[in-house]
UniProtKB/TrEMBL annotation:
<dbReference type="InterPro" id="IPR051044">
    <property type="entry name" value="MAG_DAG_Lipase"/>
</dbReference>
<keyword id="KW-0378">Hydrolase</keyword>
<dbReference type="GO" id="GO:0016787">
    <property type="term" value="F:hydrolase activity"/>
</dbReference>
<dbReference type="InterPro" id="IPR022742">
    <property type="entry name" value="Hydrolase_4"/>
</dbReference>
<dbReference type="InterPro" id="IPR029058">
    <property type="entry name" value="AB_hydrolase_fold"/>
</dbReference>
<dbReference type="Pfam" id="PF12146">
    <property type="entry name" value="Hydrolase_4"/>
</dbReference>
<protein>
    <submittedName>
        <fullName>Lysophospholipase, alpha-beta hydrolase superfamily</fullName>
    </submittedName>
</protein>
<feature type="domain" description="Serine aminopeptidase S33">
    <location>
        <begin position="47"/>
        <end position="254"/>
    </location>
</feature>
Length: 327
């Protein structure tokens, strides 16, 4: 059996990374890999484990989130998906996948490694934005295959449950995506916007220092083929899933779209329509708790101090009621 070789991570002391070999990329961009990151300091008695999955134009850097779970006896792991963050190789299209099911490979590998490191530990999956769409689809497939364990809970942070915009526009746009994806899957839709990035990063009005090469302020280009895969994922979600475990859905209490940064940009979701998150949360199946966090940003755990505190308190209460003592 090949010995696992964990390497120092870009986050510095207290974090290590492991490259997961995924073989040839199904979309023809060389060999695919993902990167699993772990917080090396764990509690003397491990109560469980967390697997964190990022969103689009993102990677794991949220050490405050890792600290929060570690303080509650949870061994913390985060996954940079194929072609994302630490896992992207030269020549690969950032965050591109023609089918969200491709991500099952690294999610399964990561889960197996966590279970090997902490046998019998219950696992909570935490995911943000597009990760909040990818992971419920994966868990639904696991549940249908009779493989729910060791996952015992799902925390979704502003999950992307539908395409923004008016319903009358979403249908024709989705149909056009299906056609274009066959012939121009890597075509850039030019949807870049720096408002959200500037609200987060220390170079703008934010307090967070992260690598803008891995998480650009304007985001990576959105490609036709990737967005088509997302829309197929949306359609599957809307037909109804059963992730097999209790779910907590966190979102902002309001959306604010603007091409310029204002005070409202720091107290709203500037990326998704929070009404859509609320509408489709019931499609996860099972016991689902939806909590709007007043004045939260798109990533509620990167919000201003007060909404961020409320988000962590909400997770704390949910862990105690839904996971520690499930119905």
């Amino acid at each position: 059996m090949t010995e696992l070789v964990w390497q120092p991570d870009v986050l510095g002391d207290g974090y290590e990374q492991l490259t997961l070999d995924l073989g040839p990329d199904p979309d023809g961009e060389g060999d695919a890999a993902a990167v699993l990151v772990r917080r090396t300091t764990v509690a003397e008695v491990v109560e469980g484990a967390v697997l964190y999955v990022h969103g689009f134009s993102d990677y794991f850097f949220q050490t405050e989130l890792a600290d929060f779970f570690a303080e509650r006896g949870q061994a913390f792991f985060a996954l940079d998906l194929r072609k994302c963050g630490r896992a992207r190789s030269a020549g690969q299209t950032a965050h591109y996948a023609s089918d969200l099911e491709h991500y099952d490979a690294e999610l399964e590998q990561a889960l197996a490694l966590i279970s090997s490191a902490h046998p019998g530990a219950p696992v909570i999956v935490v995911a943000h934005s597009t990760g909040g769409l990818i992971t419920p689809l994966w868990l639904d497939r696991r549940r249908r295959a009779g493989r729910v364990a060791p996952v015992v809970g799902l925390v979704l942070n502003s999950p992307w449950f539908d395409l923004q915009g008016k319903p009358v526009m979403r249908g024709p746009f989705t149909q056009a995506l299906r056609v274009l994806a066959r012939v121009q899957p890597l075509r850039d839709l030019d949807l870049s916007d720096t408002v959200y990035g500037n609200s987060l990063h220390i170079s703008g009005s934010g307090e967070w220092d992260y690598d803008v090469a891995l998480k650009p302020l304007a985001g990576f280009p959105v490609t036709v083929g990737w967005l088509n895969a997302v829309r197929r994922g949306h359609a599957r979600l809307h037909r109804g899933l059963d992730v097999g475990v209790p779910s907590l859905v966190l979102r902002s209490d309001k959306t604010h779209y603007s091409r310029e940064h204002t005070d409202a940009s720091d107290r709203s979701d500037t990326v998704l329509d929070v009404r859509q998150v609320a509408r489709w949360a019931g499609c996860l199946g099972g016991r689902t708790t939806v909590v709007p966090i007043p004045d939260a940003r798109h990533d509620v755990f990167l919000s201003l101090a007060e909404p961020r505190r409320l988000a962590y308190e909400t997770v704390d209460a949910w862990l105690a009621s839904c996971v520690a003592h499930p119905a």
